[in-house]
Design a protein that fits this description.
about 20% helix; two-stranded antiparallel sheet; globular; alpha+beta
Length: about 100
């Protein structure tokens, strides 16, 4: 099943395909899991499936989950804290934006 994903860009308003969640470690960026989602659902609704996949494949639970802004909406999932980047301000320099 292919789904259309609305991008909101002038040159490419829609994309077609599956949504994929890729999980990597926070410090070394080693990919530890990937989950393909057949239907188009919002990012924060894919998080439970991804976290259970990681728990099964690695045998350990994720303590804090560092996500991008697409996962905003929930601060916790069960006992797992969700950490989102802060919003950058106009007065922030390059270092401060990258740090957030």
């Amino acid at each position: 099943m292919r789904c259309s994903i609305g991008k909101g860009k002038d040159h490419k308003q829609y994309e077609y395909g599956n949504k994929v969640s890729i999980v990597s470690t926070a410090k070394t960026n080693i990919i530890v899991g990937a989950v393909s989602h057949e239907s188009y659902i919002h990012d924060n609704h894919t998080l439970p499936e991804v976290l259970t996949h990681i728990e099964i494949s690695r045998g350990t639970t994720v303590k804090p989950a560092v996500c991008d802004r697409g996962y905003r909406g929930k601060k916790k999932f069960g006992e797992i804290e969700i950490i989102l980047p802060g919003t950058s301000l106009k007065r922030d320099n390059r270092y401060q934006r990258d740090k957030k």
